[in-house]
């Protein structure tokens, strides 16, 4: 079964494919590899592509998508494309300009989903992480609710079909949900989620509000030294996960992805390896028993591979709350 038929409804009536292809590129990988991998992913059945202004690869992803539209493999409406608002564009008057830059780079007329990348506004400018002369992060005192109103205008303008958030904790989600005059509630919250960080409380909360949870770092992470503590455990080497993979005659990666899908989570997986990209589509070909789901629940250790250290000191840092 391909991912094409595996979609879930968002709270605004649009549908999102439950398996998505992540497009961040580790520093050691040339961007040309991303073009190739994105085309392979489309041929393999992926229809959901997760990108962001921060990643600086939207030209390449857009190029790959457009080439697959041009050769008749897919139509634009078959593709679900996500981009994200970066923290230096949180001022309401800047929100649309960030989206328009992403659209221009990808050469697309609209995104299917536009999300606030982090709930932490930074001062506008050319630096992704602006700092003062002492190395302190330059925080911008923007109200997230004002940013959200500008996001709503992007949806009204047809530049984004759906709008959501990423890396928000419960308290920050509630700020948006309780905003006077709220026009559209977030369709999703995209967060780090895997067997070592199963996000069960945040997942229950999001389900109760009809907000989809989208998981990144689903297989642990690419262990890029810039973001990830090199001493952290390698998730795919976990003995319980490996034993379960043997039992189901699957890879540990497929078991890890299947675990999230069966919990009602939208899953992002990233690879530049043709064999693994195609293999990830096999996640729809088997099912874990409820007993094995409970065993995997037990692997949770609240471990973040991406703790957001580059935002340390920001008053809005989301990971200081329990969830």
Automatic annotation (TrEMBL):
Citing just one GO molecular function, the answer is: androsterone dehydrogenase [NAD(P)+] activity
Q: Tell me which CDD domains the record gives.
A: AKR_AKR1C1-35
Looking at the record, the residues that make up the NADP-dependent oxidoreductase domain are 19-300
Q: Which domain of life is it from?
A: Eukaryota
PROSITE patterns, alphabetized = ALDOKETO_REDUCTASE_1 (PS00798), ALDOKETO_REDUCTASE_2 (PS00062), ALDOKETO_REDUCTASE_3 (PS00063)
**Which key words are in the record?**
NADP, Oxidoreductase
Q: Where is this site: Lowers pKa of active site Tyr?
A: 84
Q: Name the catalytic site residues.
A: 55 (proton donor)
A Pfam family found in this protein is Aldo_ket_red
Gene3D superfamilies, per this entry?
NADP-dependent oxidoreductase domain (3.20.20.100)
Per the similarity annotation, which family is this?
Belongs to the aldo/keto reductase family.
What is the protein name for this chain? Answer: Aldo-keto reductase family 1, member C14
Q: Which organism is it from?
A: Peromyscus maniculatus bairdii (Prairie deer mouse)
Q: Give the gene symbol.
A: LOC102909735
């Amino acid at each position: 079964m391909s991912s094409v038929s595996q979609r879930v409804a968002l709270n605004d009536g649009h549908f999102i494919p439950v398996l998505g292809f992540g497009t961040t590129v580790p520093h050691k990988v040339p961007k040309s590899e991303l073009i190739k991998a994105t085309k392979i992913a489309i041929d393999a059945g992926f229809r959901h592509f997760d990108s962001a202004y921060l990643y600086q690869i939207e030209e390449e992803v857009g190029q790959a998508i457009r080439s697959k539209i041009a050769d008749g493999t897919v139509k634009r409406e078959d593709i679900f494309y996500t981009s994200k608002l970066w923290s230096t564009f949180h001022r309401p008057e800047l929100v649309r300009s960030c989206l328009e830059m992403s659209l221009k780079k990808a050469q697309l007329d609209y995104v299917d989903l536009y999300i606030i990348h982090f709930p932490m506004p930074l001062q506008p400018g050319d630096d992704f992480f602006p700092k003062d002369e002492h190395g302190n992060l330059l925080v911008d005192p923007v109200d997230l609710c004002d940013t959200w109103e500008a996001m709503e205008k992007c949806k009204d303008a047809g530049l984004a079909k759906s709008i959501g958030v990423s890396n928000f904790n419960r308290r920050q989600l509630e700020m948006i949900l309780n905003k006077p005059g709220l026009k559209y509630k977030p369709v999703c919250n995209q967060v780090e989620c895997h067997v070592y960080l199963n996000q069960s409380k945040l997942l229950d909360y999001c389900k109760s509000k009809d907000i989809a949870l989208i998981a990144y770092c689903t297989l642990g992470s690419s262990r890029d030294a810039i973001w990830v503590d090199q001493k952290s455990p390698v998730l795919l080497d976990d003995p319980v996960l490996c034993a379960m993979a043997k039992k189901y005659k699957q890879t540990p990666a497929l078991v890890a992805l299947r675990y999230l899908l069966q919990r009602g989570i939208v899953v992002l997986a990233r690879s530049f390896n043709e064999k693994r990209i195609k293999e990830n589509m096999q996640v729809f070909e088997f099912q874990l028993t409820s007993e094995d789901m409970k065993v995997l629940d037990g692997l949770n250790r609240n471990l973040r591979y991406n703790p957001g250290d580059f935002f340390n000191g920001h008053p809005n840092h989301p990971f200081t709350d329990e969830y």
